[in-house]
Amino acid sequence: EVQLVESGGGLVQAGGSLRLSCGASGFTFDDVAIGWFRQAPGKEREGVSCISSGDGSTYYTNSVKGRFTIYSDNAKNRVYLQMNSLKPEDTATYYCVKVHGWRVRAGVDCRPLNLNAWGQGTLVTVSS
C-alpha cells in the first residue's frame, strides 16, 4: 500500500524555523517526484515545493523562494521541507503527495498525481 505520512509541524514565532518530514512506504524513491502542499483555513490548497528524486530538480512557489528548501534522503524514503524565516501567512496544514515529475523537471509547477490521495497533514502555526 502506497502511503505518505507527514510530521514535524508545530507552533513557531514569526522568523523561526521548522523542518517537515514526509515518510514514504509502499514504493521506492528511485524515480519519483514528491511535493509539499498547504491549505490554510478558508483558502484553496496550493503547491509549495516539489522535488524529483531522480535528478534532484526542485520547484518552489514564489512566496517561499529563498526561505524554504526541499530535499530528499532516498535511502530513507523521506522528503524534507526546511522552512526558515517563517511568516504568519505560512500558517496552514501541510501535506505531501506524489506529483508529476515532468512538471517539476520542467519548472512548471507541482501537480498531484492523484487529487484524492491526501493524508492527515501536519499543522504549522506561525504566530506574529
Helices and strands in order, then pairings?
Layout: E1 3-7, E2 10-13, E3 18-25, E4 33-39, E5 46-52, E6 58-60, E7 68-73, E8 78-83, E9 92-98, H1 101-105, E10 122-127
Please provide a brief summary of the model.
The protein is mainly β.
Structure characteristics:
128 residues; globular; 46% strand; four-stranded antiparallel sheet; mainly beta
For the biggest sheet, the summary is: 6 strands, mixed
Between the first and last Cα atoms, what is the distance in angstroms? 40 Å
Based on CA inertia axes, which overall geometry fits? globular
Helix content: under 10%
Question: In DSSP terms, counting alpha (H) and pi (I) runs of 4 or more, how many helices?
Answer: 1
Task: Explain what this protein looks like in three dimensions.
The protein has 128 residues and is mainly beta. Helices cover 4% and strands 46% of the residues. A 6-stranded mixed beta sheet has the order 2-10-9-4-5-6. Strands 1-3-8-7 form a 4-stranded antiparallel beta sheet, with no helix packed on it. A hairpin with a 6-residue loop joins β4 (33-39) and β5 (46-52). The longest helix has 5 residues, at 101-105. It is globular and about 40 Å long. The protein starts with a strand and ends with a strand. The model has no long low-confidence stretch (mean pLDDT 94).
